[in-house]
Amino acid sequence: MNKNKDRFDKLCHDRIIQMENVGQLIRRTREKKELLLRHAAAQADIDQAILSKIERGERKASKDQIIRLAKVLGLDQDKLLIEYISDKIAYELVNEDVAAKALKVAERKITYFKKQNNAQKI
User: Fold this and answer.
1) Torsion of CA 53, 77, 95, 5, to 10 degrees
2) Architecture per CATH, 2-96
3) Distance (Å, rounded) from C-alpha 16 to C-alpha 49?
4) What is the CA radius of gyration of the chain?
5) Spacing of C-alpha 57 from chain mean position
6) What does the alpha-carbon distance between residue 87 and residue 20 come to, in Å, rounded to a whole number?
7) What does the alpha-carbon distance between residue 79 and residue 110 come to, in Å, rounded to a whole number?
8) Is 67:81 a contact under the CB 8 Å cutoff?
9) CA-to-CA distance for 56 and 26, rounded, in angstroms?
10) How far is CA 119 from CA 103, 108, 115, in A?
11) What is the C-alpha separation between 101 and 122, in angstroms, rounded?
12) What is the pTM of this model?
């Protein structure tokens, strides 16, 4: 478990250093693979103009679009979803003075709710 936490901490640290949002990550990966925007959009079944806006941060992708883009770009789906969700949270909380404290409470609630759901399934 500690090894996984260390890897996660490194991933978070690397992403914070880069300060790259999910759209920028998608664009960088697409360009690195030398995949044209229109080809990536077609393979992911996303309108080319919409994908362009997602990459530029002018439009938020849907979860379904993120999953399809991960597949097209050969990215780890979970990692791209983490980026997507973390962007949503960060943009929502950026102007809140108590954001860090609220995130800690939310983390505890998530753990509690998961335990409750698991107990109900038994």
Assistant:
1) -150
2) Orthogonal Bundle (1.10)
3) 28
4) 17
5) 13
6) 10
7) 19
8) yes
9) 10
10) 24, 17, 6
11) 33
12) 0.74
Q: Provide the residue count of the chain.
A: 122
Q: What share of the chain is helix, strand, coil (3-state, %, to 5)?
A: 80, 0, 20
Inter-axis angle of helices 37-44 and 48-56, nearest 10: 110
Q: Is the Cβ–Cβ distance between 13 and 2 less than 8 Å?
A: no
pLDDT tens digits for 9-21?
666 655 554 678 9
Q: How far apart are CA 111 and CA 105, in angstroms?
A: 10
Q: Label residue 76 by pLDDT band (50, 70, 90).
A: very high
Residue whose token pair is 């640290």: 13
Structure confidence by residue, pLDDT tens digits, 22-32: 999 999 999 99
